Amino acid sequence: MINKIKCNIAKDTSFPFNNNASFCIGTGRMGLALQKAYHDQLKMVQDEIGFSHIRGHGLFCDDMAIYQQYEENGVVKTEYNFTYLDMVIDDYISLGLKPFVELGFMPHKMASDTQTVFYWKGNVTPPKDYEKWANLIKATLLHWIDRYGLEEVITWPFEVWNEPNLTSFWKNADMQEYFKLYEISAKAVKEVDSRIRIGGPAICGVDDERWLKEFLSYCSKNKLPLDIVTRHAYATELPDRVGHYDYQKLRAPEVFLDELKISREIIDSFPEYKGMEMHITEFNTSYTPKNPIHDTNLNAAYTARLLSEMGDTCASYSYWTFGDIFEEQGVAFTPFSGCFGLVANGMIPKPTFWTFSFFKQLTGSCIARDKNYILTKDENDVIRGIVWNPVEEIHGEADIDLSFQLPLDNGKYVIISKLVDENTCNPLKTWLDIGSPNYPSEKELALIKSCANPLTSTQRKTISDKKLDLSFLLKRNALLYFEVKKIHPQVDRGFQPERIQGAHKLETK
Amino acid sequence: MINKIKCNIAKDTSFPFNNNASFCIGTGRMGLALQKAYHDQLKMVQDEIGFSHIRGHGLFCDDMAIYQQYEENGVVKTEYNFTYLDMVIDDYISLGLKPFVELGFMPHKMASDTQTVFYWKGNVTPPKDYEKWANLIKATLLHWIDRYGLEEVITWPFEVWNEPNLTSFWKNADMQEYFKLYEISAKAVKEVDSRIRIGGPAICGVDDERWLKEFLSYCSKNKLPLDIVTRHAYATELPDRVGHYDYQKLRAPEVFLDELKISREIIDSFPEYKGMEMHITEFNTSYTPKNPIHDTNLNAAYTARLLSEMGDTCASYSYWTFGDIFEEQGVAFTPFSGCFGLVANGMIPKPTFWTFSFFKQLTGSCIARDKNYILTKDENDVIRGIVWNPVEEIHGEADIDLSFQLPLDNGKYVIISKLVDENTCNPLKTWLDIGSPNYPSEKELALIKSCANPLTSTQRKTISDKKLDLSFLLKRNALLYFEVKKIHPQVDRGFQPERIQGAHKLETK
Amino acid sequence: MINKIKCNIAKDTSFPFNNNASFCIGTGRMGLALQKAYHDQLKMVQDEIGFSHIRGHGLFCDDMAIYQQYEENGVVKTEYNFTYLDMVIDDYISLGLKPFVELGFMPHKMASDTQTVFYWKGNVTPPKDYEKWANLIKATLLHWIDRYGLEEVITWPFEVWNEPNLTSFWKNADMQEYFKLYEISAKAVKEVDSRIRIGGPAICGVDDERWLKEFLSYCSKNKLPLDIVTRHAYATELPDRVGHYDYQKLRAPEVFLDELKISREIIDSFPEYKGMEMHITEFNTSYTPKNPIHDTNLNAAYTARLLSEMGDTCASYSYWTFGDIFEEQGVAFTPFSGCFGLVANGMIPKPTFWTFSFFKQLTGSCIARDKNYILTKDENDVIRGIVWNPVEEIHGEADIDLSFQLPLDNGKYVIISKLVDENTCNPLKTWLDIGSPNYPSEKELALIKSCANPLTSTQRKTISDKKLDLSFLLKRNALLYFEVKKIHPQVDRGFQPERIQGAHKLETK
Amino acid sequence: MINKIKCNIAKDTSFPFNNNASFCIGTGRMGLALQKAYHDQLKMVQDEIGFSHIRGHGLFCDDMAIYQQYEENGVVKTEYNFTYLDMVIDDYISLGLKPFVELGFMPHKMASDTQTVFYWKGNVTPPKDYEKWANLIKATLLHWIDRYGLEEVITWPFEVWNEPNLTSFWKNADMQEYFKLYEISAKAVKEVDSRIRIGGPAICGVDDERWLKEFLSYCSKNKLPLDIVTRHAYATELPDRVGHYDYQKLRAPEVFLDELKISREIIDSFPEYKGMEMHITEFNTSYTPKNPIHDTNLNAAYTARLLSEMGDTCASYSYWTFGDIFEEQGVAFTPFSGCFGLVANGMIPKPTFWTFSFFKQLTGSCIARDKNYILTKDENDVIRGIVWNPVEEIHGEADIDLSFQLPLDNGKYVIISKLVDENTCNPLKTWLDIGSPNYPSEKELALIKSCANPLTSTQRKTISDKKLDLSFLLKRNALLYFEVKKIHPQVDRGFQPERIQGAHKLETK
């Protein structure tokens, strides 16, 4: 079955499109940022995509060793240790990243209870003493200002805690207690410098409307500092857990996008918060690090749709996460473990890595946008587009034949395309084909990586009737980027392609 | 038109095949080895292919600055300067290369006349004073032994001069004068250490039979040192020169190979030289650095045939040359100038780069060989093959459908293939498509390079009847490498591919 | 006060000296080997010194995630995860290191009790089920053999547990329980391959004589596999703990060395173990990671004495540790925290780094050795020496004037020296001078590092009476390496040093 | 003999000082910029010092291959080849450098005569056809604008030819012909873009006053474009040539500086040119690449004086040259050949390398300046100084005891010093001591490099009477950089230096 889609683009059309895809990226707990493999994966992401900010959990967890107590003359005193924190933030900065700071979780010596979340045991209970918590925040900020300068630190957004609307992340999902935490944290931040932007409630999509309304009401009523609103969004149903893996059903992208619109409307319904930036500080298809969908081409194609529309409501949307050094459910047993990353362990870019790389290229104004494509035109009249064909049915076949008619000046053009589909750029398939080795050798990794790049093609066209007809056949779960650019061919003296044995024909009409 | 070729391989077949493809590689004049771009291209070649030796002209040319004269009290004296030579050889060694030393050309202060060859003006006349020439050779060898150790230097083969059978390379192509040069050079070398291997006559395919016979007779009669015989071989007719380019007709590969067989027979006809190693110290399709055929996929496919059979007669065959930093006819005006290299300027691997990379993989015994393919099996029963389809007619179409039946144990297998054809790995096409810019920008180079790698694919097969049917459709000028390897799939606990949204079907029968 | 020491060396003198200084180096827990800073420090050590093996704790601790349990149909089952282990050992191998494997500590799910050691909480209790322990060992070894090959793995020495003679490292320091652990571990290892070398008892210097005798008797009586004997050795008294620091008194080096001799004698008193290799799998001056002595020049000079004599009794002696990424007592608050490393955090080589670098140079036979010096002569008659002057008294002054008379052929010589003393190579001092910043900036680190290299000097001497008088003035805690080498000066044509404005006088008699 | 110099600095003193030391650096002919060793040396210079511009000869020389002719239908036509030029300028830009463009020398096919300069044979005769010369300039500029953008290219200063006042550099040193060349070149440049800055006459110190006056008169009278005035300056008398070396006498620095003042006055005497920037596009002590003075510590100390005062009259002063890949008098036979570079072949920084590194540090206002020192204070009250003691007499001894009294707030300070003198940072000495090997091995180079860094020391001082007394003993030819900086010591909990065995005493009063 081939689905035919046509799109004629008129000369001065324009569509809404805010390309915030590379503002922020997610990461596993901060302690992992000390690891070499983490650094190498993040560097690979930054070299190709170049995100601006990075956000993850665990700033105040015990493995970062910041909050310390000691006894002196029978009195318990506090001291702070920034040795590891400096290593992490120095490294981020060297990679061109600023932290999007999540204030959490609780140092166990400051915690009021013992409840933890994850394999790595983050304490998720309120502080025994809120003053100590405020002091910890202030000490950390002051240390950062000392090391990186105030002008730098005020460009880092701050967010209070993570998903307090879940009992697993915040004891009893106690809303009033969270508001208290927010209030004290936000005031502590502003005490250091009023220009530092702070926000919450960092909720996920469970009882989210009520939480958001109550949170905004509380802030409004108490005139709390609030600069940004943050939440999370995932696109799957509940998982069926088998061994190391979770299987889930993907929701329609519209369902996902509508959830954000509702949040947007709630915010805008408060006059004092109307238009305030909403940041999606986590999003992905599945919310478990054990769903192999993350490793597929479907994930890349599905995410493309999200990136083309999330900017309608959100100032940023942080894909959870950049890489697979991640320990929330333990250490992965294989390189394709269904973890969140854009990069699999072994330095393998997954298909979705390219979705972000492609969106990074889109600049200028949007000249076409629909469920399966988006096109932009820049100030030099270069047209760029991304097209995609997610097929959610397992082993389902549903090719799309996408045709565009572009209005263009006459002249010679090159069309450059980069194809990511199940045959050309599918490292999961290669790994399976070689026997899905748990611990691949260096040689096996090299092979897998050689199957993890887009297939780039070029084509020359001469336009003499002011329009270009372009068409792409997208197989299931294909993602394709293209560029249409005017060229001014140069011909070196004596160069006659038609006389070269082995030369191809220059232009196919 | 599709040409069908079938090949059933019986269990214990074996074919002759000496894989000497990576023994030696050619290079432009030695002075260019000081350049950064030369080093970078050579490093790229060594990282992927890893040749053992490197041979080129110009060791004693003026730009290397080795031979120096000065006057003292009215007497002209000699001194040697090894500053640049050390830089070059140190760099070769750091890249895993040994020199295959060509003794030539003549320092102009030692030359008997002014005739030069090439844009870079190598003097091609006999020495004024043969004793000074012998001294120069000895001084250079002694310096090398001092710097690199005798045990290392005796692994470097030596050859006297270059193509003395052409008037452009040796004044008047004077045979007797060459024999004199050979005699004095060979004795100088042996005087330093008798284990150093020396040879000649380094001729190309012009009047070559007579030259070879006379040379061997002369050596034999005069009991000269002779350890290896060297010659060159190219596969094209005379050029038609237009602007910066030369257009020529390629000869059939059989013509090329037969020329070598005749040389082999001449050598073997001398009882004392029977079986002596013959080294092809230069070969390529075209012998001019201005024929764009070098940049094509045809060149890659055609060369594959040569590499599969040249070992029948030759101990080595040095592709002329590794890269396009080369000045024999001046400096190239564009990155695809028809120069000899495996790598084009701008660090672009040409299709033929992959021919050598693929042959490097062939190990073990040969189980099939014909005009369009060669297959080997190694000690672990891994089968590797290369298949090719050169189409010499310009714009000619002639696909090949190649089928193999391989005898294999039952079990699960992966087939890995790497395809280099005009659509998937054709940087010349990409460059033309973007308007053949004379001086491409970094971004344009990145695009061209992204179109210069083989398309790697994998496929799983279960064998239950002791044989595997494999087939490849080769379009014009395609080159393909494949590997058939037994696998022992591992399945992580709970991993169920058939439940993953976005997963492909594992095995296509 | 200057202490004068003279040493006249006769022509054919020779002294015992086994230079095993670079056989093995210590490391913090294996989980830290995932860190980037750990890798960078270890690379620095390997680039300069190049140890052969590395040994540390924590192979089986929970952060390495190897031992895993899961429930299936109500039954608890075991699975192993080698993802992190591969990262660590791959990295070691890429740095030229083999593991000297310590089998320990106990995965908490396999442990019989909850007692832990260190900030990082290594479980130090026997296994609940010794069969599971044996299986864990065998599974790990088999995985290694699969990944690295049997021939490689049999070159890795194995040792059972760490310091079982201390209650902090082994519950109740229960000797019989340790013997059981040893027996089962050793047999498990030999079951995989009988060539893998295994040993114990890995004790420190507490009740060590009794432990060693009993252990050897037990092995002997029960005919247990035993290939090497291992123990630890430190040179300080009990600490006085103040804040983050421990202050201790250093023992005389003779006391330290005598302890090893006694162990040697105990081993040799068993006929079946006479001459068996004794490996000191940990040694250092102080045994706490909070004693700033590790960061001093005294430490470098004191260690030199140990390295010059430990080879008399031991096959190896593993300095504890290579770097300061180390968490036994928590995370260091400053770069000079008194931790064990040769390298301080921030990539700063400490003075003792150079002690090992210098000993690495000593090759050939020993021609002089005493409390403050050691000299060797190699097969090319190059004489190398190390001299040192440890002054244990705080702020004590006690310079040494060391004079050697060396028997040498007449001719020209160069004397090269590398000085590490409190003025020239003392990063601790630099750090203190700039205000001992807890978290130094990159610029401050650059300054500290520029004060952490030896001062290299050269001097020319002409010998005409067959001997060279050399003398060195060593200030307190100085360490100096020197080399005496014959030279054959070359003089370029026209080079006249005495005519150069700004040239120094060539040779000072 | 010790010369005592005292300098009491009052609180608000200020001295003139324009620190233009790192605006421009010199280089050998542009063709050498293709070499790897050239690139490596230049990268070393840029990493440590970071010049803004680079100037050298040979842009239009034949080895750059820019100007090309060919015949078509019997007509000689012109074409340009920018392949090598792009490699060079791309590399400069990647190293943070802009060209300071010298327009010259003459492509031999465009030249009116055959006279050449240097071993590398730059043609120094006027063009046969000035229109072709203008076209060459314009084509080159337009290519640069195409590749690098107009906004970039207008930041590159241009200069017409090199030292036309010498017969060796300009046929007959024909002044009127030079004015013609200048006029046509300057107009060609301005035709491309009027904002590009152009200047001349690029003369050296021979008959320079007359040349400068005539040049400015000519420009003025003919209303020629003129944006900057350029000249050269060297500080030595005529050489005595012996073998590969030249020996010369250094002039007093005052003589050198006065020559520049006269030029300045001549420029300022023209009302229309008053205050116009004067650029010294070449300077050094000796003007021959064979005078070993360049390799000495005297050169470093002498140059310091020049750098402290040249900014009084000049907008820039380009040290001739950054490295020793240089061929004007042939290829050097040894690494210390008396060539101009800051870096000797083999990647060895010479003492003068550090002079430039030190001057790069001087920022803020000048608070003291005299024949042997210069001090600055920045906006954070950090005081930096450079002191020097050049002793021109061969083997002369003349130490200086330099004392400063600095007005400072009370508090704790660190004094950081970096010493470059004949004992601590003298690679020439090391090379001589090891026998001055013509072609040092990698190991010998490592040794030499380990003797080529400043000796860095630090010292703490407490000031309680508002002033700091500092003194430095400078041995012959010493150069020293220092920094005085307030510190705010941090003391980690429990850190008690006085209890550490092996710790030094913190502060020496």
Automatic annotation (TrEMBL), chains A, B, C, D:
Transmembrane feature ranges: none
Superkingdom, taxonomy of origin: Bacteria
Name under which the protein is recorded: Xylan 1,4-beta-xylosidase
Classification via Pfam families: Glyco_hydro_39 (PF01229)
GO biological process terms on file: carbohydrate metabolic process
Source organism of the structure: Mobilitalea sibirica
Catalytic machinery residues: E163
Family annotation (SUPFAM superfamilies): (Trans)glycosidases (SSF51445), Glycosyl hydrolase domain (SSF51011)
Domain Glycosyl hydrolases family 39 N-terminal catalytic: 5-463
The keyword Hydrolase is annotated on this UniProt entry: yes
GO terms, molecular function: hydrolase activity, hydrolyzing O-glycosyl compounds
Residues making up the signal peptide according to the UniProt record: none
Keywords: Glycosidase, Hydrolase
Similarity comment: family membership: Belongs to the glycosyl hydrolase 39 family.
